[in-house]
Amino acid sequence: MIRGLYTSAAGMLTGLRRHETIVHNLSNVRTIGYKADRATLEDFPSLLLTEVRGGRTRSEVGRAGTGVSLADLKTDFSSGPLKLTDNPLDFAIAEEGFFRIQTEDGVRYTRDGRFHRDVDGRLITANGYYVLGENGPINLPQGALTVTPQGQIFVNDTQIDQLTLAQFADNDNIIKDSQTTFAARDAEPELMQLQDIQIYQGYLEESNLDSAQAITEMMSVLRAYQASQRFVQFQDQINDQAANELGRV
After folding, report:
1. Mind listing the pLDDT tens digit of every residue in the chain (249 residues)?
2. What angle do CA 207, 137, 99 make, to 5 degrees?
3. Torsions phi, psi of 100, nearest 5?
4. Which of 35, 24, 211, 170 is nearest to 112 (CA)?
5. Helices in the chain by DSSP H: which ranges?
6. CB–CB of 189/98 below 8 Å?
7. Helix 2-27 crosses helix 211-247 at what angle (to 10 degrees)?
8. CA 25, CA 176: separation in Å to the nearest integer?
9. What global pTM score does this model have?
10. What percent of the residues of the chain are helix, what percent strand, and what percent coil, each to the nearest 5?
11. Distance set, CA 51 to CA 18, 34, 150 (Å)
């Protein structure tokens, strides 16, 4: 009976965290460059044993389960749909890669291409961070701006800089720093080769969240939570009954 309570309670706690993740994703469904998070689940004792054994574990045949826990949050780095804006300072990355930006905490990486020109002529993000080119922050003189699909920046038909994109060899090395900015966990990313870059000027990349799928998943999580809650109540009644019977012995 105690095992049943443990299993149901673990299911409820996991359901709450999964629900929080889905709600957070849905709140960013219109956030440019947003990458959705996915909850990964694992049998709780197995997760604990894995930590104790330094990442090594084995399953036991016939062992009853004792609930699941949220093992990790994985970011889905698949591309989102592109939206035409016709703004010459809007940019979208077609496939892989991240724009490099300079923040107060160092170099960060983003897929949010809503750029602007500040009063000093620097190309900045919507949050005011410098966009980095080949030689640091990009400076835009006045004139007609054209950016090629390979990120070459021209003003009045003269190339003045190059949008540089970073690429991570392993997505597990990427940490979500904010809603749309990322940092390197360990190894720094490499700069992409010119021929591998695909940038669209006048477009923005929308969130990659499938809202219909997220809502369906949320309903499933809520039903599972309610089922676990009912089972906890049932187990509690059984325990009370057993305690009363023992008290009469």
Report:
1. 455 555 666 666 777 888 889 999 999 999 999 999 988 766 555 444 444 455 554 544 444 444 555 557 899 999 999 999 999 999 999 989 999 999 999 999 999 999 999 999 999 999 999 999 999 999 999 999 999 999 999 999 999 999 999 999 999 999 999 999 999 998 899 999 999 999 999 999 999 999 998 889 888 877 776 766 666 666 666 666 666 666 565
2. 25
3. -100, 130
4. 35
5. 2-27, 44-52, 211-247
6. yes
7. 160
8. 13
9. 0.77
10. 30, 30, 40
11. 21, 31, 44
Token reading at 197:
């870059």
* Count of alpha carbons within 13 angstroms of residue 18, beta-carbon side: 26
Tell me if 117 sits within 8 A of 147, measured CB to CB.
Answer: no
DSSP SS3 for 245: helix
**Domains of the chain, residue spans:** 2-76+209-247, 82-205
What six digits make up the tokens of 58? 């084995």
User: Longest C-alpha distance within the chain, in Å?
Assistant: 95
Residue labelled with tokens 């993000």 = 125
